[in-house]
Every structure is written in C-alpha cells, then in structure tokens.
Amino acid sequence: MTLRKQRSKTPARAVRPNPRDATLEAAARRRIEADSLLSASGTLLVAVSGGADSIALLHFLVAERARTGRPDSLAVAHVNHGLRGADADADAAFVRERAIAWGVPFFESTLPRGGTSEDALRRARYAALVSLAERADASCTATAHNADDQAETVLFRMARGSGLRGLAGMPSKGRVHGLAVVRPFLDVTREQVLDYLQRNGVPHRMDVTNQSLRPARNRIRHEILPRLEAGVNAGVRKALVRQAALFREADEYLEVEARRYLEASVLERGDGKIILAATRLLDYPKLLRTYVFRCALQELNGAIRDFTTAHLDALLSLVTQSSGRSIDLPHDMVARRERGRIVLARRFREPAGLKRPSKT
Questions:
Q1: Within 13 Å, how many C-alpha atoms sit on residue 57's CB side?
Q2: Helix extents (H) in 44-117
Q3: pLDDT digit string (tens) for 93-140?
Q4: What secondary structure does DSSP assign to 309-333, as a single string?
Q5: Statement to judge: residues 200 and 108 lie in one domain
Q6: Which domain holds residue 330?
Q7: Running DSSP on this structure, what letter comes out for residue 208?
Q8: pLDDT in tens, 278-301
C-alpha cells in the first residue's frame, strides 16, 4: 500500500465553516468584488423605501464607505407612491431621518395618483428614480433586490412562460427603463437581512401591503414558495437562484454567438433599418435565429424590453413565409419579407407641425 492510499483512508479533519461567511456583509462584498459593482466613480444613488431590505442596504453602504472609502459619495432616493396616505408619508419621513442621521443627502419624489397595476407602478417608480438620479448627479442607482426576490422573480417568469433571458432573473448590474442599476444584495437572503438589522440595532418600516395576497408576486412569496419548500424541496429558493445563474450563462453565450451570426446575415444596414438574408437565417437553429433577431432589434431600438415572445415568434415566421407579409412591432418599428430578404425598419414620422404641401 502506497503512502497516497494510506492518506486517502485517513479521515480528514472536519473544517468548521466560518460564521462570518454566512453574513450579509460577506455575501454582499463577494458580489460587489466579483462584478465590480462599486467601481464607477461619482455619486451612487440608493433607492430606499424604508423597508428592511433597503434600509439594510443603505446602512451597509454607509459602513462600507467608512471602511473602504468607496463609493466616492452616496445619496438617498425615496419614491412616495401616494397610495397609503399617512403611512406613506411616515415612510418618507423615516427615510429622510435615517439619511440625515447617517450624513447622506436625501432626494424625494411623490408620484401622482394614477394607474395601480403592478407594471404601471413599477414604470412610474423607475421614471421617478431616473429624475432623482439626475437631481443627485448620480451615475448609478443601487436597489436592494435580494436572493429571495431573485427566486420569486424566476418562478414568476417561469409561470408566465418567459424565455431563457427571463429565466435568468435579475442581473447584478444593468439598465432598467433607462436607469443604470446595481444590485449588491442578489446573494443575500431575507433572513440575513433581518439578522444584519438586529445585530446593528437598525430600525425599519413595515409595509402592510406586502402581506396582501392580491399581487401575484405576493402570492408566490407567501403561498407558493412555502408550499414548495414544505412538500417538494426545502432548498427551492437556493435552487431557483442557482438555475437563474445557469440560464444567465447560457443567455450570455447565445448573445455573443448571435452577434457573430448577425454580421454574417446582414445584407444592408443604415437609415434606421437592417436587412437580413432570409435564406441564411434558415441555416441557423431556431433558438439562434431568435437571438439574431433580438440583437438586430436592440441595435435599431437600443432596448428590447417591450418585444415579447409573440413578437419574436412572428419574426421567426417571416423566415419561412413568402414575400409581402409585414409585422407591426413596438416603438414604431416594422418587419417585412421582401423576396429573399427580411427588412427591420423604423417607420418614418414627419416632425410635429410639418404639413405636406397641398396639391393644386
């Protein structure tokens, strides 16, 4: 028996995990370092509602600034939706008080009462944050989305039939409705957030609407995920987060490949249009064709958030159909089949007030 085999039979001494590795601070710092989330210079705007997650994020970033000297400066943004009356005003006052106490400039926006759908409120909130970022001269905005939010997002999108990109969940940095966003807490669990607040004696506000089962996301949080944990997999939240990371890797790889194949398919580009060779697209697998169209639309429009699976399926149908068919797309765009070509173009719109000369 060799020495190597003897060693393989010797029980290895158990290594006890360091409790500090399971804290909010450790998880957030690993994410920040891995994705260089705080490397940009300038002011970082922190979106703070007053709830546990966002207050923990603000407190953590203030402590990190003192510990490391970054980011250069912080500012707080609070968006008052105006839907909960005195409670909403109390949230704003609480966040303002915390910001002053921790030496961080405070910026607030109150939304006009209007649409109350989840999507409408989300869009209004991000529009307000864009405005607040301009007022604060901030280059980026930090939000407190955490690992539990990520799991809920993936399950929600899976139920709605999202594609690969949707199942990748929220990235740690990107742009949302024109706002540059970073998410330092994506590896932090809600349990770690509450532990952090307790250890540091940090108070936070409670939003009773988060307990309502009317919004779909709240039903996922309070009913569906707990049932999955109890009856299917106790670690379902971690599993969903891991799956999101795998989907994101696949999505990023396919996008890189698609940009290569897009260049090989382009017959003409310019003047707000891209013309693709339909016969060449037929040589590509269907999934890759989808990504080629995504890349072309992003090049023309700058973003593809409003382009749904139905829009992409319609574009795919143009590859195999005859000439003369056209498809209306979001953002005043149109796609049409012309013989062996697929034309993606912006519609021409006359400037407001410009009238065509009348015929005499």
A1: 32
A2: 52-68, 86-101
A3: 999 999 999 999 999 998 876 556 777 788 889 999 999 999 999 999
A4: HHHHHHHHHHHHSPTT-EEEETTTE
A5: yes
A6: 252-346
A7: G
A8: 999 999 999 999 999 999 999 998
